[in-house]
Each structure stands twice: as structure tokens, then as C-alpha cells.
Write a structure and sequence with these properties.
The protein is α+β, with helices and mostly antiparallel strands. The longest helix has 9 residues. The protein is globular, with a radius of gyration of 16 Å. The model has no long low-confidence stretch (mean pLDDT 95).
Length: 203
């Protein structure tokens, strides 16, 4: 199983980090060891003083696919979910400034929170899903998939040009504005269309 992540897929998030709007989706990979085990707290790593939460809608791939046409992309997933792409922002900025890859800032152990999965058939329109992240019961991110620069099926088609998709692969579709630093004793919970999909304690 691999975790394929999309960066800069919401315009307001691009602005808040002062990044350039990309002409194509920004793609990076997290290893399977990045998945935070269920019911386990997230421990802030000793190598970062500035870990950020990034809430994202997730898609689970259900079969093998390569060079998938966008019009057929919907056939490659039946379940959607919600998760967090934890990012060591200070380390990421340091690596980016040197022109180096920034996997260390995105793919470290526990950096991927994956909530429960639900059938996509539960929702009328996957490109009109409301989702939000609460930190200590306060809303810090509030997004809608309709604001994606590239829609889910577009992303699947694009990614499959470069990486063969396999059953169990997970696509992180990008984060809206509102990302921020976590602190010890924070409590994060994610909601998709009003339903809690995950919660995680920060240590």
C-alpha cells in the first residue's frame, strides 16, 4: 500500500503559505510506515518545532489501474474518508530552501492519520462535500471539495500516468486553508458532512 498525496489543490491554502499556483497537481508519496495506528496518540517528533495539521479528504483505490482515463476513474474507488497529513513545516522549509526533496517533513512515522471509511454512494456529489477539523473543540479548518483545483477523478487519472495504482492505495486530495501548528495536549477531530471520522490526541 502506498499513500499518494496532492499538494496545493486549494487556492486559499496556496495563498496562506505564499506558494506559487501550480500548472499541474503537486504529487508526493508517504510510505506505509507513516500511517498512525488506530487509537494511538500522535507524538510530536523531536526533529521539529513546528508540526502542522493538514486536513484532507481521502480516497481508497479498489483495483489495479494505469493510464486511467478521467471518465473511468470513478470505477477505481468505492470508499472515501478523512485524514490528516502532518507536516514538519520548519524542516520542509529548510529542505525546500536548499532545493532538496522534503519527504522527511511529510513521510515520517505517524505523519498520516487515516479515519474510518464510508461508501461513496452515501453522498450525492463527491465534489460538494463539507469537511472540517476541530482543535480542542474549535473549528480551525472548514472546507468543501468543490473548491479543489483538480477534482478527484482528475487526480486519479493524472497520478496513474506516473504510478500504477493498486488495491489499497490511498489518495490524499489536498488541504484547504487554515493549517496550523499543533501543541502537546491538543485534541483533533475531523468531520465529513457532520459525521466524526477520526480523533487524535497530541502528545
Amino acid at each position: 500500500m502506498k499513500i499518494i498525496c496532492i499538494g496545493r489543490n486549494y487556492a486559499d491554502h496556496i495563498k496562506e503559505l505564499a506558494n506559487e499556483r501550480p500548472a499541474e497537481p503537486v504529487v508526493f508519496i508517504k510510505p506505509d510506515s507513516a500511517v498512525l495506528p488506530k487509537e494511538q496518540a500522535f507524538y510530536i517528533p523531536e526533529f521539529s518545532q513546528d508540526v502542522h495539521y493538514e486536513l484532507e479528504v481521502l480516497v481508497k483505490i479498489k483495483k489495479v489501474g494505469k493510464h486511467i482515463q478521467e471518465k473511468f476513474a470513478h470505477k477505481y474507488y468505492d470508499e472515501v474518508g478523512l485524514g490528516i497529513d502532518f507536516t514538519a513545516r520548519d524542516l520542509q522549509q529548510e529542505l525546500k530552501a536548499k532545493g532538496l526533496p522534503w519527504e522527511k517533513a511529510k513521510g515520517f512515522d505517524g505523519a498520516a492519520v487515516i479515519g474510518k471509511w464510508v461508501p461513496k454512494s452515501r453522498y450525492k456529489d463527491l465534489q460538494d462535500l463539507n469537511f472540517k477539523l476541530l482543535r480542542n473543540s474549535e473549528t480551525v479548518q472548514d472546507g468543501n471539495t468543490g473548491l479543489m483545483l483538480w477534482k478527484i477523478d482528475e487526480l486519479i487519472a493524472y497520478v496513474s500516468r506516473y504510478f500504477m495504482l493498486k488495491k489499497g492505495d490511498i489518495l490524499f486530495t489536498g488541504t484547504p486553508a487554515g493549517v496550523g501548528r499543533i501543541s502537546a495536549n491538543d485534541y483533533l477531530s475531523g468531520y465529513l458532512e457532520g459525521e466524526e471520522m477520526f480523533s487524535v490526541k497530541i502528545k
